[in-house]
Automatic annotation (TrEMBL):
Name under which the protein is recorded: ADP-dependent glucokinase
Originating species: Hermetia illucens
A family per Pfam: ADP_PFK_GK
Superkingdom classification of source: Eukaryota
GO BP term, pick one: glycolytic process
Length: 499
């Protein structure tokens, strides 16, 4: 009797407990949904910037974008690369070398996949690349997708959609040109065949052998034989004189990474880019889009020939860590944390900023002082702007970049709060390194006004530089549809409201 009673009490208790859990879960979900909706409303309110109507003399901003382009073949990463049956041992030390064979390809993929880090690598073995292509086109032919690719065309299309007048420098086949909106002014000759990039996409939590991806991302492989020479630079030269853009975007330099050039050729090509940057008048702002680099020598060339001549740099969490490592320790970083804390990212940005501004201060002939940095991560967007510089609307730019991130990854213009989640906490610290800007502040994210902006200053040599930082939370897409091209769309949409 007593034992029966006991059982019935237990049953009642567990039913009650389960009910409570369901109610709690529902309340929690509702609360989350409410937060996401408020933040979304706040971001949308900031997104559109009043530029003045035609009567107020408003002209479309002019943007020139270089260099290069390709055809992207999007494929399911874990279906294309089978996990080696013999369970090979992965050699982590060799990661940062070129991909010369299947083994190195697998080593590299495992490393970036495990870290959820976006990366772009050159495969020097033409036959290996062809084999991968053939496999995608035959075995996976029902799930692959061809699109227009390359940083310059992607950013160009985004600028056009945001109402800019766009000049794009790239060499393309007739076939690929059909994918480019006709409103974009194109310079560059017609080529027979385009370079192909294979975009190996994977989702959050996808597994491959013993590895699980911590976030959705992609591993890009290519075997480019045209893009590394940046021939679009010459095509852009005269066109720039007539076009007189407000903004020149320099991108696609990563196509030179681990490519085998004849001695001196790469140096000469980068010098050409530098000359093009120097030739621009000061009212043409210059932006450099960073990318995934593994070759130290190429980063040294960029440090010498590109960074001193740009006003602005755009990059993701991996790229800012890599750039900081190069500038401070003269080495390259392999994949780092795919979801770094805000304080950590801000410190990296400050270090890079101080470093680049110091070299500007010591020798500024023909150089430009860095006045803008944009770092995009999965959970948030950060834009740093030097006060008194030519960049406007920083808060709006951060909001717009955050919205673009969601729209692109979810492949949907309309943001549904149920398809979004917040990864960023309700507040964040501004630094973990008191040496740079002193004691940390704690910044709370206001749901109704979700982009947090504040001012700071640093001393570089004897000059005090004041700057503003804005951080916008990203409404992270729950079910990622595409990650390739996200950085290009995000960077371009942030830039377009600031010029
Ligand atoms: C790739 O295919 C696997 C099934 O083999 C699927 O579970 C996964 O979601 C796919 N990934 C992407 C990015 O489509
Ligand atoms: C940017 O700000 C300056 C000064 O604050 C102003 O004169 C200029 O019109 C602004 N430009 C845009 C595009 O909003
Ligand atoms: C990003 O750019 C690509 C190529 O231009 C385009 O297909 C995609 O829709 C863009 N994303 C958004 C959110 O517009």
């Amino acid at each position: 009797m007593t034992s029966l009673k006991c059982i019935s009490v237990m049953t009642t208790c567990s039913v009650f407990g389960a009910l409570l859990a369901i109610i709690f879960q529902a309340l929690w979900t509702l609360n989350q949904l409410n937060t996401v909706t408020l933040i979304l409303t706040g971001l949308l309110a900031l997104e559109n910037v009043h530029r003045g109507g035609i009567n107020e003399g408003y002209e479309k901003p002019k943007v020139a974008v270089g260099y290069g382009g390709c055809a992207d073949l999007v494929v399911n990463a874990t279906q294309l690369l089978s996990y080696p049956e013999d369970g090979v041992s992965f050699e982590k030390d060799e990661l940062l070398s070129e991909i010369t064979d299947e083994k190195k390809l697998i080593d590299n993929f495992a490393h970036y996949f495990e870290n959820g880090a976006a990366s772009e690598r050159f495969i020097s073995d033409d036959k290996l690349f062809k084999r991968l292509l053939t496999k995608a086109k035959t075995k996976l032919k029902d799930s692959i997708r061809w699109t227009l690719g390359g940083n310059a065309p992607m950013m160009g299309v985004r600028f056009l959609k945001e109402g800019a007048d766009v000049l794009l420098a790239t060499r393309m086949s007739e076939k690929l040109r059909k994918h480019l909106p006709t409103e974009i002014q194109l310079v560059g000759d017609v080529i027979d065949e385009d370079d192909i990039h294979m975009i190996l996409e994977y989702k959050t939590g996808e597994t491959w052998g013993p590895f699980t991806a911590p976030r959705a991302n992609r591993f890009i492989v290519h075997n480019d034989h045209r893009n590394p020479f940046l021939q679009a630079v010459e095509w852009l030269e005269d066109a720039l004189k007539n076009f007189q853009p407000r903004l020149l975007v320099v991108s696609g330099i990563q196509m030179m990474d681990t490519f085998k050039f004849e001695p001196g050729v790469r140096e000469a090509r980068i010098e050409k880019v530098k000359e093009q940057m120097i030739a621009q008048p000061r009212n043409t702002l210059i932006h450099f889009e960073m990318a995934s680099y593994v070759e130290k020598d190429l980063l040294s060339l960029i440090e010498k020939n590109i960074l001193p001549y740009t006003d602005s740099i755009g990059m993701n969490e991996q790229e800012v860590a890599n750039l900081n490592r190069k500038l401070s320790k003269d080495t390259v970083a392999s994949a780092t944390d795919s979801n770094p804390r805000v304080a950590h990212t801000l410190d990296l940005m400050r270090e890079v900023f101080v470093n680049l501004r110091s070299s500007y201060a010591s020798n500024s002939k023909n150089k430009r002082p860095l006045t803008r940095m944009h770092v995009h991560t999965l959970a948030y967007q950060v834009i740093l702007i030097v006060k008194g510089s030519q960049w406007n609307n920083t808060k709006n730019a951060a909001a717009k970049a955050a919205l673009t991130a969601h729209r692109h990854v979810c492949a949907n213009e309309v943001i549904n709060p149920e398809s979004a989640m917040l990864i960023l906490d309700s507040s964040f610290a501004t630094t973990v390194n008191e040496l740079i800007v002193g004691k940390p502040q704690r910044i709370k994210i206001e749901q109704k006004d979700p982009v947090s902006c504040w001012s700071e200053s640093v001393k570089v040599q004897s000059q005090i530089i004041e700057y503003e930082i804005c951080v916008a939370p990203v409404l992270v897409c729950r079910d990622a549809k595409q990650t390739a091209g996200a950085g290009d769309n995000i960077s371009a949409s942030g830039l377009v409201v600031q010029i």
